[in-house]
Amino acid sequence: MIIERISDPDYLCYEDVKQILDNGRSVTVQFSKPAHSPDLFDSLNGLCKTFGTLVTARFFGHYQEGFDASVLSLLPDVKSLSVDSLTRIFNEDELARLPSLERLVFGVFEFDRPSFLKDLEIERFTHFAVSENRKRNFDLSPLQGCRELRKLFIQGHIRNIDTLNKLPKLEALGLSGMPKRKDLAFVCDVPKLKSFELVLGARQSINEFSHNGLEELRVRRVRSLESLGPLDRFPSLRLLHVEDQLQLHSVSLSGPSLLDIEFLNCKKLNQLSGLDEQREIKRFRVGRTELDLNEFLEFDWPPTLEVIALYSRNDNWNKAARQKLDQLGYREHF
Q1: What is the rounded distance in angstroms from the CA atom of residue 207 to the CA atom of residue 205?
Q2: Would 97 be classed as within a structural domain?
Q3: At residue 35, does pLDDT exceed 80?
Q4: Cα dihedral sign for 107, 108, 112, 116?
Q5: Does residue 31 lie in a domain region?
Q6: What angle do CA 25, 92, 103 make, to 5 degrees?
Q7: Rounded (5°) CA angle 188-197-260
Q8: How far apart are CA 192 and CA 52, in angstroms?
Q9: What is the pTM of this model?
Q10: Is residue 8 in some structural domain?
């Protein structure tokens, strides 16, 4: 869903927000500095009460003094809250007093309180994201009490991360900045997992990770990654996106029946096998690799293919290729 952001407003108009939502977008009302009027927050709280998680209150920046979270007492009906991209926070216990909170993004760099998650009312959370602090020292074990959690993103923290496999409804998991000493085997046991994203950090392979129910796998900017391993470890996989993997030389697509394949800025990738087995594919994008893109122009694509985008380092080739693909009836984007 596309997010419409309203930044540092002086007032909020109910009809304007409703029109945005009626057009199929969500709304984030965000504040980068303090000094907000009670009337403004009363309006924001009313929007949160009426529209629920479609309206997010966000607090970021606050570079001079840090963020004083006591202002959250004016938002008792907020269900979706983002307190992120902050250096410091004060009166953070106010987050635990929000009776309706279901979705939280939390990121404060200078915040040394390892037990913070234990002090939150996280049992009703359905979405949660936590960014790294300076010490990367959050204890993640309280998350095992999130019996309703469906979407989770963790950056940098690994203390008791294995307890995530006890989350019965978790469907989407993103991990960022995972050190290579921490393998991914624990992810195999997350029972309802459908989508997994691995970003940044470092490791040579992800071979220790397998999952019968996984449908989407995204890998981006993981240092030293040389292999995705056999994809038959993910028999239900439908989407594979790989980006900025500079040590990846070859990938075999054999195994799952993929609908969406993307390789971008994998500069040493020169072999992609098993593509001829993908007879249900709908979307294929490749750019900034060592693959021979001319082969894809002549490839025997199945009738399911709708989108194909090929990007070389030569603008003239790109224009000619796009023209040919357009003539064949393929779109560049969905």
Answers
A1: 6
A2: no
A3: no
A4: negative
A5: no
A6: 30
A7: 105
A8: 25
A9: 0.94
A10: no
- Residue indicated by tokens 């399911």: 304
pLDDT higher for 210 or 64?
A: 210
pLDDT in tens, 264-303: 999 999 999 999 999 999 999 999 999 999 999 999 999 9
Which pLDDT value is given to residue 67?
Answer: 96
Q: Is the residue at 294 inside a domain?
A: yes
CA angle 142, 143, 147 (to 5 degrees): 120
Burial of 323 (0-12, 13-18, 19+ CB in 10 A): exposed
CB 202 within 8 Å of CB 224: yes
Task: Tell me how many domains the chain contains.
Answer: 1
Distances in Å between the Cα of 101 and the Cα atoms of 7, 55, 109, 128 are: 21, 12, 22, 11
Pair 240, 263: CB distance under 8 Å = no
Q: Which range marks the domain in which residue 321 is found?
A: 200-334
Q: Which residues pair with 286 in a beta bridge?
A: 263, 310
Show the tokens assigned to 249.
């030389």
Q: Degrees (nearest 5) of the Cα angle 129, 173, 106?
A: 5
